[in-house]
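Why predict the complex rather than its parts? Because the way molecules touch one another can change local conformation, and only a joint prediction can capture that. The input here totals 531 residues.
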Amino acid sequence: MLRLYEGIIEAFRLILAFDPALLEIVLLSLRVSVIAIFISTLLGVPLGTLLGLKPEKRTRLINKIIFTFMGMPPVVAGLIIYLILSRQGPLGVLGLLYTPSAMIIAQVFLATPIVTGLTMVGIRAKGSEIEELARSLGAGSALAAWTVVKESRIAILGAIITGFSRVVAEVGAVMIVGGNIAGRTRVMTTAIVLETRKGNFELAIGLGIILLLVSFIINSILYNIQRGGKAN
Amino acid sequence: MKKCFAVILCLMLLVVFTGCQPAVSSAPEPAPAPEPTPSTSPGEEPEQELIDDFITLATTTSTYDSGLLDYLNPIFTEKTGLEVRVVSQGTGAALETGSRGDADVLLVHDRTSELRLVEEGAFVDRYDAMYNDFIIVGPADDPAGVKNVASVIDAYNLIADGGFTFVSRGDDSGTHRMEERLWDSAGINPEGQAWYLSIGQGMGDTLNMANEELGYAMTDRGTYVAMKDNLDLVIVLEGDPVLFNQYGVMAVNPDEHPHVKYDYAKMYIDFIMSDEGQNLINSYQVNRETLFFPGYGLE
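Output of the joint prediction:
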């Protein structure tokens, strides 16, 4: 228990000390996760909308595949991306392994099925009704789809928040494809693993608390956007 | 439907709790000299009673990944009945685990820290169990020309001067601590240099990254030999006396942590230090190379 208490003290000490090395780690975590979730949103929301508007019978197999990929173990995702980006792999020439780009790719791979799947579920909940209504009012199919997205934005934001939570907390994949290189690809989660393995439990807990605080801030922003959506 | 769910939940909890039971009940047991038979004295056949219990061994990734423990521990278990549960970590974490009383016995390699911790009373019964050596590996074409020099100091200077990629464990392990000491004696501070990749991971991960990045790395011979088939890296420097690496075995001090199974830990230490144990260490080979040599290696 003493360790946990010391960890909380350590977290505040770290925040107040404003250590540049720590700031770098926090910013890289945010940069990688935010870019990854942005790309996953661009891919997942249109795909999820498309699938959600199709009759359930015709997308059964795709649904099952997407739901399976939502539960993809991060280590497996990391390994797949590693093998693709490795020197002997098909995209080895790009030299992306052990860079933040590789970490973003792995996280997109993890988050896109989540955003897609949850968007699809949200759209399916009332999408066809809205689409019919929009069409009956004379909207084309593109405009009708846009209306559905607008009306389902709470569910879609929920999908994005879930995807973001997944990537910001994820350690297995970024460890493998990023390599946890100090000053280059070290993020909060891999730093926590490292400090735990070094036996610096207070520092590890301190970093964990900071990670939770950062997540809380991001989620508060998204939550406020979502509530704004509800109020309208 | 709700009822059914509740029943399932109860069943799951039941499984979890009963599953934990043996560990929970046996862990805090002080084991007050239940069968304090010191293991094999050379003369008599070890026809002792088998003990239905386990000990926790905190050790380094190198002993575990090399397969040595998978070779030694079953023989110990066969002789005593004691199961050995291995927690493999960096030496820094293993020492911390032991100091906290979360293990019974340690097999680690940071002689200076070990002796200090014994003096401070965290551990007892420390012996020099075995040793191996470190090597420096690098790309086959050896761009820094490390093959032309015989000392680590010269090698590190060549790598640093040319700015060639060097991958470091960076995890406060025994290997990392030794690597740091050698950089120090070379008068170089590699921390933060663009060519110096400090990755905070295990030996295998470090070799994989050196392989990918066409860089150099310092490794224990065991891990390299075990992974050689999957690596393009070659040995560019070996045999410098400073690359010698001593392992120690020691028990967690029962005066500090009354719940540790000191008697069983002592049996494990006796086994490792017995003629049989030392011979077993010497006879263990991977890819036809001996990885660990018994006893104390420094002259």
